[in-house]
Amino acid sequence: MKIAIQGCTHGELEKIYDTIQHIEDEQGIKVDLLISCGDFQSTRNLSDLKCMACPDKYKDMCTFYKYYSGEAIAPVLTLFIGGNHEASNYLQELAYGGWVAPNIYYLGYAGVVNINGIRIAGLSGIFKGFDYLHGHHEKPPYDDNSMRSCYHIRNIDVFRLKQLSSNPPDIMLSHDWPRGVTKYGNAEQLIRFKKHFKDEIEQDKLGSSPTWEILETVKPAFWFAAHLHCKFAALVEHEGGRRTKFLALDKCLPGRRFLQVLDIGPPVQNDDISIQYDADWLAILKSTNHLISVEKKPRYTPGPGCGERYDFTPTPGELENVKKMFDGCLDIPYNFAQSVLAYKPNGQRPKLSMVHQPHATVNSQTTQFCQKLGIQDPMALLVGAHNTNTNFPNRTFSLTNKLANYINEKETNISLNSTLNPDEISIHEEANSEDEDGKNSALEDNVFSPEKSKKAPDSGDRKSMQVPLSLPAPQLDEESDEVDLASILNTQPSSQASDLFFIDKEGGGDKDPPSEDNSAPKSNPDTPPVKKLKRRNAAMYSADD
Fold first, then answer.
1. Using CA atoms, how far apart are residues 37 and 7, in angstroms rounded to an integer?
2. Cβ count near 316 (within 10 Å)
3. Dihedral over Cα of 362, 365, 366, 369: its sign
4. Other Cβ atoms closer than 10 A to 249
5. From CA 239, how far away is CA 243, in angstroms rounded?
6. Which of 58, 119, 227, 408 is deepest in the core (most CB within 10 A)?
7. Residue 30, SS3?
8. In the chain, helix, strand, coil percent, each to 5?
9. Residue 495 CB: number of other CB atoms within 10 A?
10. Are the C-beta atoms of residues 48 and 95 closer than 8 Å to each other?
11. Residue 76 confidence (pLDDT)
């Protein structure tokens, strides 16, 4: 199966789908699945946009609303996790995952699905120690704190994912990087490209401890991430001979390495793509339902010595039970339904100061899923909605219990300023800031403006390619005030199957990422003219959160 991996999406769905279409046309292949590693920005309207954590003046509707309304249809099945710039109110309705638009599926706070036999797990959000032990207590309308804490990962979701160790997924997704993964790749090259990472890498502070815990415990074959806006590959060797191939990708911008197409699993026949629930994951959700909390207080997961069950590896009986609950059919139903009105542009920049956040609500997809599996919907608990499953005990583990949690008091107080990314700006910063080269980020870090949506491409049979494809980074002409779309698309993918995970710790081998000072290649006189699009500000994303 040909899977396109995308770093941070930041709402640029049209650009990503256009890039995939170009690769398909250029290489004679058919991409079967698109995976986004967060910052998806599934904003349906201005109320959703109001719930995204960044200053109002940097918020942009982008293009997701077109796919939500039906104006455009995602041309390829799209799977995504949440990051730290999302329509959090919408995603919180889908705690266990669900369709956010036709052909676009969200994995939830944490989730596992099976697509044509490939098991894909994901963890949404980023790690901040001071929220890690809390329940998912946030609900809209948010204040400044809850608007950010709502996308911080929680210990229950990490605990659940660690129960997959006996049957690891093929692919694991996270937004931020597992802490310490840079030890297994070309860290010297990364530091040359991202000089501000040097101290954190040397102090082993770059990335997230809980995601490293999952990587060490579960040992998936592939791990894809984003968040730090750069491409980085690593190969993690585990005891017993298992290996995890790690790849982080950039955000969708000119001159950036944001997309990679891989061959994973058997080829798809006749465009037959199926998405199913994962039986192991359903059993884990069912057996750990009593650990759910929607309170803003520490809740510890069980461990050895606590006197309770702490190993929730699914038993044969539990697996059989969940299959019976779903009548032996684990196909994910297509039960998407619009619940709010979609955005309608009027040609003017919206005045978000006049827009109010929505109130919390439950989603029918989550309600149906919880009723079928017999578990609780966190949002239903928060809003007091009727839930036939609220008779489950909501257990609190005392701090005096002998628990084997890896997290310690020091870890829960990790600085808010860890894993800084100067490509982003502070969510509390309204003034323009300067990047590491002294240039104004608000003016120089640009993306395309939205275009008209494209129709779904023809899904006919195409010649198969048996090697991974990479999209080389086109160059951005810093002297020009426009971006040439042809410079994004008219690039040749790598033909070497080993390019993706070639690690050279001596500093040779792979070339450094292209410098922003390089000029754009001259256009080919035989190439048809391509419309040029004005550059616009995209320096909206927080370094700290």
1. 5
2. 8
3. positive
4. 28
5. 9
6. 227
7. coil
8. 25, 15, 60
9. 11
10. no
11. 98
